[in-house]
Design brief:
Elements: E1 5-11, E2 20-28, E3 36-41, H1 55-59, E4 69-74, H2 92-105, E5 111-115, H3 118-129, E6 134-139, H4 148-155, H5 161-178, H6 180-187, H7 189-198, H8 200-212, H9 222-225, H10 228-239, H11 244-255, E7 273-281, H12 292-295, E8 299-306, H13 314-317, H14 319-331, H15 333-336
Parallel strand pairs: 3-4, 3-5, 5-6, 6-7, 7-8
Antiparallel strand pairs: 1-2, 2-4
Helix pairs in contact: 2-3, 6-11, 7-8, 7-11, 8-10
Protein backbone atom coordinates (compact mmCIF):
# COMPACT_ATOMS: atom_id res chain seq x y z
CA UNK A 1 0.00 0.00 0.00
CA UNK A 2 1.05 3.59 -0.57
CA UNK A 3 1.43 5.02 2.91
CA UNK A 4 0.56 8.58 3.98
CA UNK A 5 3.37 9.64 6.31
CA UNK A 6 3.79 12.58 8.66
CA UNK A 7 6.07 13.88 11.41
CA UNK A 8 5.33 15.76 14.60
CA UNK A 9 6.79 16.53 18.02
CA UNK A 10 5.07 15.56 21.28
CA UNK A 11 5.83 15.53 24.99
CA UNK A 12 5.76 12.25 26.91
CA UNK A 13 3.74 13.89 29.67
CA UNK A 14 3.33 11.76 32.77
CA UNK A 15 6.62 9.91 32.24
CA UNK A 16 10.08 10.71 33.59
CA UNK A 17 11.32 11.70 30.12
CA UNK A 18 11.07 15.48 29.73
CA UNK A 19 12.71 16.15 26.34
CA UNK A 20 10.49 16.66 23.27
CA UNK A 21 9.83 13.43 21.34
CA UNK A 22 9.88 13.73 17.53
CA UNK A 23 7.73 11.05 15.92
CA UNK A 24 7.18 9.77 12.41
CA UNK A 25 3.81 8.14 11.81
CA UNK A 26 1.44 6.78 9.19
CA UNK A 27 -2.12 8.09 9.34
CA UNK A 28 -4.93 6.77 7.16
CA UNK A 29 -8.38 8.00 8.23
CA UNK A 30 -11.34 5.96 7.05
CA UNK A 31 -14.16 7.53 5.09
CA UNK A 32 -16.65 5.26 6.87
CA UNK A 33 -18.93 6.86 9.49
CA UNK A 34 -18.35 5.33 12.89
CA UNK A 35 -14.81 4.17 12.17
CA UNK A 36 -12.69 3.52 15.28
CA UNK A 37 -9.19 4.95 15.78
CA UNK A 38 -6.65 2.10 15.82
CA UNK A 39 -3.07 2.47 17.01
CA UNK A 40 -0.76 -0.04 15.26
CA UNK A 41 2.62 -0.59 16.91
CA UNK A 42 5.35 -2.45 15.06
CA UNK A 43 7.97 -5.04 15.94
CA UNK A 44 11.71 -5.46 16.05
CA UNK A 45 13.24 -5.99 13.54
CA UNK A 46 10.22 -4.68 11.69
CA UNK A 47 8.94 -1.14 11.27
CA UNK A 48 5.89 0.89 10.36
CA UNK A 49 6.07 -0.88 6.98
CA UNK A 50 4.36 -3.88 8.58
CA UNK A 51 1.05 -2.04 8.49
CA UNK A 52 1.17 -1.79 4.70
CA UNK A 53 -0.49 -5.15 4.00
CA UNK A 54 -3.48 -4.54 6.29
CA UNK A 55 -4.14 -0.81 6.17
CA UNK A 56 -6.49 -0.70 3.16
CA UNK A 57 -8.62 -3.56 4.50
CA UNK A 58 -8.90 -1.80 7.86
CA UNK A 59 -9.81 1.62 6.50
CA UNK A 60 -12.08 0.30 3.74
CA UNK A 61 -13.65 -3.06 4.67
CA UNK A 62 -15.43 -4.91 1.85
CA UNK A 63 -18.88 -4.54 3.42
CA UNK A 64 -20.71 -2.47 6.02
CA UNK A 65 -21.06 -5.34 8.52
CA UNK A 66 -17.32 -5.17 9.27
CA UNK A 67 -15.80 -2.44 11.48
CA UNK A 68 -13.63 0.23 9.87
CA UNK A 69 -10.67 2.00 11.45
CA UNK A 70 -8.74 5.24 11.33
CA UNK A 71 -5.23 3.74 11.35
CA UNK A 72 -2.27 5.41 13.09
CA UNK A 73 1.09 3.62 12.89
CA UNK A 74 4.02 5.48 14.50
CA UNK A 75 7.67 4.51 14.35
CA UNK A 76 9.06 3.73 17.79
CA UNK A 77 11.66 6.40 18.73
CA UNK A 78 14.98 5.41 17.16
CA UNK A 79 13.27 3.09 14.63
CA UNK A 80 12.39 3.90 11.03
CA UNK A 81 11.96 7.63 10.55
CA UNK A 82 11.46 8.54 14.23
CA UNK A 83 14.74 10.18 15.33
CA UNK A 84 16.80 8.42 17.97
CA UNK A 85 16.66 10.09 21.38
CA UNK A 86 19.56 12.33 22.38
CA UNK A 87 19.19 11.60 26.10
CA UNK A 88 18.72 8.39 28.10
CA UNK A 89 15.32 7.43 29.45
CA UNK A 90 13.21 7.20 26.30
CA UNK A 91 12.29 3.55 26.70
CA UNK A 92 9.03 1.62 26.54
CA UNK A 93 7.21 3.55 29.29
CA UNK A 94 8.09 7.01 27.94
CA UNK A 95 7.30 5.83 24.40
CA UNK A 96 3.73 4.81 25.23
CA UNK A 97 3.20 8.21 26.82
CA UNK A 98 4.43 9.76 23.57
CA UNK A 99 2.09 7.57 21.50
CA UNK A 100 -0.84 8.58 23.68
CA UNK A 101 0.09 12.23 23.16
CA UNK A 102 0.13 11.58 19.41
CA UNK A 103 -3.37 10.08 19.49
CA UNK A 104 -4.67 13.07 21.44
CA UNK A 105 -2.99 15.43 18.98
CA UNK A 106 -4.86 13.66 16.17
CA UNK A 107 -8.11 14.18 18.12
CA UNK A 108 -8.50 10.51 19.06
CA UNK A 109 -9.16 10.63 22.83
CA UNK A 110 -10.34 7.00 22.76
CA UNK A 111 -8.86 4.29 20.57
CA UNK A 112 -8.11 0.59 20.16
CA UNK A 113 -4.73 -0.98 19.38
CA UNK A 114 -2.93 -3.87 17.75
CA UNK A 115 0.72 -4.89 17.92
CA UNK A 116 3.26 -7.69 17.90
CA UNK A 117 6.77 -8.12 19.34
CA UNK A 118 7.70 -4.71 20.81
CA UNK A 119 4.30 -3.48 19.65
CA UNK A 120 2.56 -6.23 21.62
CA UNK A 121 4.50 -5.30 24.75
CA UNK A 122 3.98 -1.57 24.29
CA UNK A 123 0.20 -1.76 23.88
CA UNK A 124 -0.02 -3.63 27.19
CA UNK A 125 1.89 -0.82 28.87
CA UNK A 126 -0.23 1.77 27.08
CA UNK A 127 -3.42 0.06 28.24
CA UNK A 128 -2.15 0.11 31.82
CA UNK A 129 -1.19 3.79 31.82
CA UNK A 130 -4.22 5.01 29.85
CA UNK A 131 -7.15 2.76 30.79
CA UNK A 132 -9.83 5.32 29.94
CA UNK A 133 -8.40 5.98 26.47
CA UNK A 134 -7.17 2.62 25.16
CA UNK A 135 -10.49 0.80 25.16
CA UNK A 136 -9.37 -2.63 23.95
CA UNK A 137 -6.57 -4.30 22.02
CA UNK A 138 -5.54 -7.38 20.06
CA UNK A 139 -2.03 -8.66 20.78
CA UNK A 140 -0.12 -11.04 18.50
CA UNK A 141 2.77 -11.33 20.98
CA UNK A 142 1.14 -11.76 24.38
CA UNK A 143 3.82 -13.21 26.62
CA UNK A 144 3.53 -14.63 30.11
CA UNK A 145 6.55 -15.74 32.10
CA UNK A 146 6.04 -19.29 33.42
CA UNK A 147 6.23 -19.23 37.22
CA UNK A 148 8.12 -21.61 39.51
CA UNK A 149 5.08 -23.86 39.90
CA UNK A 150 4.65 -24.11 36.13
CA UNK A 151 8.29 -25.06 35.67
CA UNK A 152 8.15 -27.61 38.50
CA UNK A 153 5.10 -29.23 36.90
CA UNK A 154 6.92 -29.22 33.57
CA UNK A 155 9.92 -30.99 35.13
CA UNK A 156 7.56 -33.55 36.64
CA UNK A 157 5.85 -34.13 33.25
CA UNK A 158 2.47 -33.03 34.61
CA UNK A 159 1.85 -30.02 32.36
CA UNK A 160 -0.88 -30.12 29.73
CA UNK A 161 0.07 -30.42 26.04
CA UNK A 162 -0.52 -26.67 25.59
CA UNK A 163 1.53 -25.79 28.63
CA UNK A 164 4.33 -28.09 27.47
CA UNK A 165 4.42 -26.56 24.00
CA UNK A 166 4.47 -23.05 25.42
CA UNK A 167 7.23 -23.70 27.95
CA UNK A 168 9.32 -25.49 25.33
CA UNK A 169 8.97 -22.63 22.87
CA UNK A 170 9.29 -19.59 25.09
CA UNK A 171 11.77 -20.87 27.68
CA UNK A 172 13.91 -23.55 26.07
CA UNK A 173 13.78 -22.65 22.39
CA UNK A 174 13.66 -18.84 22.56
CA UNK A 175 15.57 -18.15 25.75
CA UNK A 176 18.26 -20.78 25.25
CA UNK A 177 18.74 -20.70 21.49
CA UNK A 178 17.28 -17.61 19.81
CA UNK A 179 17.68 -14.74 22.27
CA UNK A 180 21.39 -14.00 22.02
CA UNK A 181 20.59 -10.82 20.09
CA UNK A 182 18.48 -9.65 23.03
CA UNK A 183 21.23 -10.14 25.60
CA UNK A 184 23.72 -8.18 23.49
CA UNK A 185 21.26 -5.35 22.81
CA UNK A 186 20.31 -5.18 26.49
CA UNK A 187 23.88 -5.05 27.76
CA UNK A 188 26.22 -3.75 25.02
CA UNK A 189 24.10 -1.88 22.47
CA UNK A 190 26.82 0.65 21.67
CA UNK A 191 29.47 -2.00 20.95
CA UNK A 192 27.10 -3.75 18.57
CA UNK A 193 26.14 -0.42 16.99
CA UNK A 194 29.78 0.41 16.18
CA UNK A 195 30.09 -2.81 14.18
CA UNK A 196 26.73 -2.65 12.39
CA UNK A 197 27.06 1.05 11.58
CA UNK A 198 30.42 0.37 10.00
CA UNK A 199 29.04 -2.60 8.03
CA UNK A 200 25.59 -2.22 6.48
CA UNK A 201 25.87 -5.81 5.26
CA UNK A 202 26.53 -6.93 8.82
CA UNK A 203 23.43 -5.06 9.97
CA UNK A 204 21.40 -6.69 7.19
CA UNK A 205 22.51 -10.14 8.33
CA UNK A 206 21.73 -9.25 11.97
CA UNK A 207 18.22 -8.26 10.84
CA UNK A 208 17.80 -11.26 8.52
CA UNK A 209 18.83 -13.74 11.19
CA UNK A 210 15.94 -12.54 13.36
CA UNK A 211 13.53 -12.70 10.41
CA UNK A 212 14.67 -16.14 9.22
CA UNK A 213 14.03 -17.89 12.52
CA UNK A 214 10.57 -16.46 13.17
CA UNK A 215 8.53 -16.55 9.95
CA UNK A 216 6.41 -19.22 8.31
CA UNK A 217 8.20 -20.05 5.08
CA UNK A 218 5.39 -22.46 4.09
CA UNK A 219 2.99 -19.55 3.48
CA UNK A 220 3.08 -19.05 -0.27
CA UNK A 221 3.67 -15.31 -0.10
CA UNK A 222 6.39 -15.38 2.56
CA UNK A 223 9.46 -16.07 0.36
CA UNK A 224 8.57 -13.30 -2.09
CA UNK A 225 7.77 -10.89 0.75
CA UNK A 226 11.19 -11.51 2.29
CA UNK A 227 13.26 -11.37 -0.87
CA UNK A 228 16.57 -9.49 -1.00
CA UNK A 229 14.86 -6.16 -1.76
CA UNK A 230 12.58 -6.50 1.26
CA UNK A 231 15.44 -7.44 3.60
CA UNK A 232 17.44 -4.43 2.40
CA UNK A 233 14.40 -2.17 2.91
CA UNK A 234 13.82 -3.47 6.43
CA UNK A 235 17.52 -2.99 7.18
CA UNK A 236 17.38 0.61 5.98
CA UNK A 237 14.69 1.29 8.56
CA UNK A 238 17.44 0.78 11.15
CA UNK A 239 20.38 2.22 9.26
CA UNK A 240 18.74 5.60 8.57
CA UNK A 241 18.72 6.65 12.23
CA UNK A 242 21.73 4.50 13.03
CA UNK A 243 21.33 1.08 14.66
CA UNK A 244 22.16 2.31 18.16
CA UNK A 245 18.75 3.84 18.89
CA UNK A 246 16.83 0.61 18.35
CA UNK A 247 19.47 -1.53 20.09
CA UNK A 248 19.45 0.74 23.12
CA UNK A 249 15.67 0.44 23.37
CA UNK A 250 16.28 -3.07 24.74
CA UNK A 251 18.55 -1.69 27.45
CA UNK A 252 15.88 0.85 28.33
CA UNK A 253 13.44 -2.06 28.44
CA UNK A 254 15.45 -3.67 31.24
CA UNK A 255 15.36 -0.39 33.17
CA UNK A 256 11.58 -0.24 32.70
CA UNK A 257 11.16 -3.87 33.83
CA UNK A 258 9.94 -5.18 30.47
CA UNK A 259 12.93 -7.50 30.14
CA UNK A 260 14.41 -9.47 33.01
CA UNK A 261 18.00 -8.79 31.97
CA UNK A 262 20.48 -11.50 32.89
CA UNK A 263 18.47 -12.62 35.91
CA UNK A 264 16.29 -15.60 35.06
CA UNK A 265 14.38 -15.91 31.82
CA UNK A 266 13.90 -13.23 29.20
CA UNK A 267 10.65 -11.56 30.08
CA UNK A 268 9.77 -9.36 33.01
CA UNK A 269 6.32 -9.08 34.53
CA UNK A 270 4.04 -6.55 32.89
CA UNK A 271 1.25 -4.82 34.84
CA UNK A 272 -2.25 -6.27 34.86
CA UNK A 273 -4.53 -4.86 32.16
CA UNK A 274 -8.22 -4.44 33.02
CA UNK A 275 -9.51 -3.64 29.52
CA UNK A 276 -10.85 -6.44 27.30
CA UNK A 277 -7.99 -8.17 25.46
CA UNK A 278 -7.79 -10.63 22.58
CA UNK A 279 -4.68 -12.56 21.63
CA UNK A 280 -3.74 -14.17 18.31
CA UNK A 281 -1.18 -16.96 18.09
CA UNK A 282 0.81 -18.09 15.06
CA UNK A 283 2.77 -21.37 15.00
CA UNK A 284 6.09 -20.08 13.62
CA UNK A 285 6.36 -17.22 16.09
CA UNK A 286 8.96 -17.54 18.85
CA UNK A 287 6.26 -19.00 21.10
CA UNK A 288 2.92 -20.78 20.60
CA UNK A 289 0.05 -22.32 22.57
CA UNK A 290 -0.03 -19.90 25.51
CA UNK A 291 -2.83 -21.34 27.67
CA UNK A 292 -5.73 -18.93 28.04
CA UNK A 293 -5.69 -19.37 31.83
CA UNK A 294 -2.04 -18.28 31.93
CA UNK A 295 -2.75 -15.28 29.70
CA UNK A 296 -5.37 -14.14 32.19
CA UNK A 297 -2.76 -13.83 34.94
CA UNK A 298 -1.77 -10.43 33.56
CA UNK A 299 -4.88 -9.20 31.83
CA UNK A 300 -8.58 -9.37 31.14
CA UNK A 301 -8.07 -11.73 28.21
CA UNK A 302 -11.43 -12.65 26.70
CA UNK A 303 -10.53 -14.72 23.64
CA UNK A 304 -7.62 -16.45 21.95
CA UNK A 305 -7.42 -16.91 18.19
CA UNK A 306 -5.12 -19.83 17.37
CA UNK A 307 -3.91 -20.09 13.78
CA UNK A 308 -2.30 -22.94 11.86
CA UNK A 309 -0.11 -20.70 9.68
CA UNK A 310 1.90 -17.53 10.13
CA UNK A 311 4.80 -16.30 12.19
CA UNK A 312 6.27 -13.37 14.07
CA UNK A 313 5.37 -10.66 11.55
CA UNK A 314 1.77 -11.75 11.21
CA UNK A 315 0.37 -8.51 9.75
CA UNK A 316 3.02 -8.72 7.03
CA UNK A 317 3.00 -12.50 6.46
CA UNK A 318 -0.70 -13.41 6.81
CA UNK A 319 -2.55 -10.07 6.68
CA UNK A 320 -5.95 -11.61 5.99
CA UNK A 321 -5.76 -13.63 9.21
CA UNK A 322 -4.82 -10.62 11.31
CA UNK A 323 -7.50 -8.43 9.73
CA UNK A 324 -10.05 -11.20 10.23
CA UNK A 325 -9.20 -11.33 13.93
CA UNK A 326 -9.44 -7.53 14.19
CA UNK A 327 -12.83 -7.48 12.48
CA UNK A 328 -14.12 -10.33 14.66
CA UNK A 329 -12.77 -8.96 17.95
CA UNK A 330 -13.55 -5.27 17.61
CA UNK A 331 -16.77 -6.09 15.78
CA UNK A 332 -18.09 -7.71 18.95
CA UNK A 333 -19.03 -4.47 20.68
CA UNK A 334 -20.04 -6.09 23.95
CA UNK A 335 -17.11 -8.48 24.41
CA UNK A 336 -14.39 -6.07 23.24
CA UNK A 337 -15.92 -2.98 24.83
CA UNK A 338 -15.99 -1.07 21.55
CA UNK A 339 -19.65 -0.24 22.03
CA UNK A 340 -18.46 3.00 23.66
CA UNK A 341 -17.57 4.31 20.20
CA UNK A 342 -21.23 4.11 19.16
CA UNK A 343 -22.95 5.62 22.18
Amino acid sequence: ASLKQYTTIVQAEGSNYTDPVPLHFVHHPSSRPGAMPLLFLHSWPGSFLEVGNIINLLTNPPNSTLPAFHVVAPSIPGFGFSPAPLAPGLGPIASVHAFHALMLKLNYPRYVAQGGDWGGILIRLQAFYFPSSLISFLDTFYLIQPNATDLARFSANTTSPEETTYINSVVYTFDNHFSGYRLIQETEPLSLAYATTDSPLGLAMWIYQAIRDAVDWTVSTTPSRFDATEVITWTLMYYIQGPYGSFRFYKEGVTDGVWAGLAGYAFGDLPYVTQPVAISEFPKDVWYDLPLEWARRQGNVKVRYRHEKGGHFAAFEVPEMVVGDLWTWFGDRELSGTGVFYQ
